[in-house]
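Please check this record.
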Amino acid sequence: MFILLGLVFIVSRLFFPLYEVDGASMDYTLQDGQRVIGTNQFEVNRFDIVIIDVPELNKYYVKRVIGLPGDKIAYKNDCLYINDKFVPESYLNDKKEEWSLLTRDFLIEKIPEGEYFVLGDNRRNSIDSRQLGTIKEANILSELLAIYWPLNQMTVLSH
């Protein structure tokens, strides 16, 4: 019985890792101290919320995938453009009501193959690809699936 429980625990940790949100970089989507569950079996898609490993800083961060390999990413007047097309970001509506400007204008001409551009939803308080550069696919550890703690905030994460 204990062996079976041990195997279930190990398998669940390997395929469905648990994380704690540390900081405010994903406000209001995720908040400091929330606990989330991810999956290690995923394909990276635009707007996925992921855990990234930043070995230079010896840290894991939670961010949102904005740009895929080959994409051109631009921010102009607080609006996102991907490959020269405006892309609405409804998950930022609460932040836009709070602050008139979330991020300064920038341009990434082309994301290299095998790399991704990630941003925190709290654009004014996030260490992300604007400072770190693009993130290699090998450094994207998990896609987040749900908030499981605190119980009254339990929800499935969507994009």
Observations:
- The chain has a mean pLDDT of 89.
- The first strand starts at residue 18 and ends at 20.
- DSSP finds three helices and twelve strands in the chain.
- The helical segments are 2-15, 93-98, 129-132.
